[in-house]
Amino acid sequence: MKLNILVLPGDGIGPEVTREAVRVLEHVAAKWNHALHMEEGLLGGIAIHKTGGPFPDRTRELALATDATLLGAVGLPEFDHLPPEKRPEKGLLGIRKALDVFANLRPIVAYEALLASSPLKDEIVRGTDMLIVRELTAGLYFGTPRGISGESGERVAVNSMVYRESEIKRVARMAFELARKRRKKLTSADKANVLENSQLWREVVTQAGKDYPDVEVDHILVDNCAMQLVLNPTRFDVVVTENLFGDILSDEGAVLAGSIGMLQSASIGDQQPNGVWRGLYEPVHGSAPDIAGQNKANPFAAIGSAAAMLNYSFGLKEEGAAIDAAIQTVLKHGPVTADIKRQGTAGTTEEVGKAVCAAIG
Ligand code: NAD
């Protein structure tokens, strides 16, 4: 298969972890005889330095012309004092919107080798294997009217949570499709006891469920969902929710996985005429300026994101599963980086990447 991939290493540890994800992709492509075509582009702080903006037109063109994009991380401390629209992170929102990737998929798996790294008790975390599907291009983060107005001392701030039926329906259907390939259980989290927005959400999800009679659906209030995530995480298979709720719940879910360096994400849009699902794949973590350039960042989230790319965008299930299995092997036998190392010497970012390739065989 021909795999057209755009790589955006970004800032801080982004280039280091992306390098290892690319190493693994090259290894897999050679082993399974795929033609890998990779271009590199600029996004975030490095793009501001080189072009004056966080999401250059050239990057937009490349992203729209390619099948899937692998992103490292963006953000540099030197831009922290600037308003949101001038910061590297603006590039992230820009590329998500440009690609219209409306569903953000975050798998949360409690690996046996990392149970002790979670602050929760082993018996609660053991067996956790869920997928949070967060709506990514609508809701409170994009709704209008928005802004701050009025006189000093009594100013008013407004944000609007706006959802169209079509926007709910497409992400609900994607969540049902994903649940169908897993344990066939979908939980929809909303706040239907208070918000009209959530009432519509619940209605549309229920309606969409009629096409998926084999998937069991339950609706849960988001506050209860937040509690159940840490009390009884194994009850969840696929969780679907709107943008703001998903942002919060998926970060809460991160504590179940042991380290932020383990968390991958996939943002998926519509299927393209060539059959490929356009997607943006990135670790959940940021640019970690405190450890950047030291070859000690955990590359598993980036490598896992590459596996998700093969799986979701290109439908290469065997190759994706081989990477996931190799991650499990390396977690068990090492080397692993300092953030998840229990005893002994920590491995480097590069050593972990090479070990994953070796475990794939
Ligand atoms: P961060 O995720 O970069 O770092 C938080 C902590 O986790 C740090 O101590 C860091 O060393 C550690 N960490 C993160 N990733 C790691 C890895 N792979 N291996 C080992 N340790 C890791 O979050 P932050 O410090 O709040 O933000 C730093 C910058 O990143 C900011 O500019 C922020 O805006 C940006 N950011 C970007 C993204 C993104 O690109 N998606 C996400 C979050 C934050």
> From the helix content, strand content and strand pairing, which structural class follows?
alpha/beta
For CATH, the homologous superfamily of the largest domain is named as Isopropylmalate Dehydrogenase
Q: Order of strands in the sheet with the most strands?
A: 2-1-3-12-11-4-5-10-8-9
CATH topology of the largest domain: Isopropylmalate Dehydrogenase
Q: What count of domains describes the coordinates?
A: 2
Distance between the termini: 20 Å
Q: Given the C-alpha coordinates, what overall shape results?
A: globular
Contiguous helical run count: 12
Query: Given this structure, which CATH class of the largest domain is correct?
Result: Alpha Beta
Biggest β-sheet, characterized?
10 strands, mixed
Mean pLDDT: 94
Total number of strands = 12
Radius of gyration: 20 Å
Ligands: nicotinamide-adenine-dinucleotide
Approximate strand percentage: 15-25%
Helix content: 25-40%
CATH architecture of the largest domain: 3-Layer(aba) Sandwich
Low-confidence stretches: none
Secondary-structure element sequence?
A: EHEHHEHEHEEEHEHEHEHEEHHH
Describe the structure.
The protein is of the alpha/beta class and 361 residues long. It has two domains: 1-107 and 258-361, Isopropylmalate Dehydrogenase, CATH 3.40.718; 119-131 and 138-255, Isopropylmalate Dehydrogenase (3-Layer(aba) Sandwich). Helices cover 40% and strands 20% of the residues. It has helices at residues 14-32, 45-51, 57-65, 89-99, 122-125, 165-180, 196-209, 222-231, 243-253, 300-313, 317-333, 349-360; strands at residues 2-10, 35-40, 68-73, 103-109, 129-135, 147-149, 156-158, 185-190, 216-221, 238-241, 264-271, 277-283. The strands form two sheets. It has a ten-stranded mixed β-sheet with strand order 2-1-3-12-11-4-5-10-8-9, with helices on both faces. Helix 1 (14-32) packs across helix 10 and helix 8 (222-231) runs parallel beside helix 9. The longest helix has 19 residues, at 14-32. Residues 13, 17, 73-75, 89, 92, 260-261, 282, 285-291, 297-298, 301, 337, 339 line the site of nicotinamide-adenine-dinucleotide.
